[in-house]
Amino acid sequence: MNALHPFVVLALCACAGVMLDRRFGELRRLHPLVGFGHLAGWLQAHMNVIARQSRPLTRLTGLLAWVLAVLPLLSLAFWLRGLGLPWQLTIDLLLLYFALGARSLAEHAHAVSRPLAAGDLVEARRRVGWMVSRDTSQLDEAGVARAATESVLENGNDAVFGALFWFLLLGGPGALLFRLANTLDAMWGYRTPRLRYFGWAAARIDDVLNFVPARLTALSYALCGATRRALACWRAQAPAWDSPNAGPVMAAGAGALHLSLGGAAVYHGAVEQRPPLGEGAAPGAADIDRAVVLVAAALRLWLTVALLLALGVHLS
Question: 40: which residues sit within 8 A by CB, 6+ positions away?
Answer without folding.
Answer: 69, 183, 184, 187, 188
